[in-house]
From TrEMBL:
The keyword Acetylation does not apply. One of its GO terms (molecular function) is RNA binding. The keyword Repeat applies. Residues 66-175 form the WD repeat-containing protein 75 second beta-propeller domain. Keywords: Nucleus, Repeat, Ribosome biogenesis, rRNA processing, Transcription, WD repeat. GO terms for cellular component: small-subunit processome. This is WD repeat-containing protein 75 second beta-propeller domain-containing protein. It is found in: Nucleus, Nucleolus. It comes from the Eukaryota. Coiled coil: none annotated. GO terms for biological process: positive regulation of rRNA processing; positive regulation of transcription by RNA polymerase I; rRNA processing. It holds the Pfam family WD40.
Amino acid sequence: MATGDISGRILIWHDFVNRVRPVKTVYHWHKLAVNSVCFSSEGEYLYSGGSENTESKKESVLPTVLVFDPRSHGTFLNSQAGFLQLYDPQRASMIFNMDIANRNILTDERNTVIGNAEVLRVALSPTGEWLATLEVWSNMSAGYHDMNLKFWRYDAERANYELNTDVTMPHHDRVPSPAL
């Protein structure tokens, strides 16, 4: 059994049925309160969620943006908050991690909820020379959101994308599907 507490600790309880004083293992992964804990269906992994918007102890990526890159034959995936990762599925390795937002905010205040950037949309030109990204910053507790549409050009000499244009609030609503 696993529990989380308000100080950010995760407690794993061992042999709690047969003992008067169960043995426990304590992990302190979270800076703020632990909101939820659960084991994977196989019991091999423990997942926990808190309020500080961090990942810890192991690599964990749940991609939602998938765009094929014709130059590298890799796939763009959203990575940690505000980043895109170019992944090579044939080698099962990362080609590079790209900072789209260039700013992520963390707080040590317990009652402050802040939003980090989320890369919602990605489009690539047929040659892979141009990349368009749409990032959204949301802070529902403050009642605002910010949106940036960015255009990046591939620099072959440096082997990375360079920011070319940044358009703040290109639409007052969401952008369903950019295309280049």
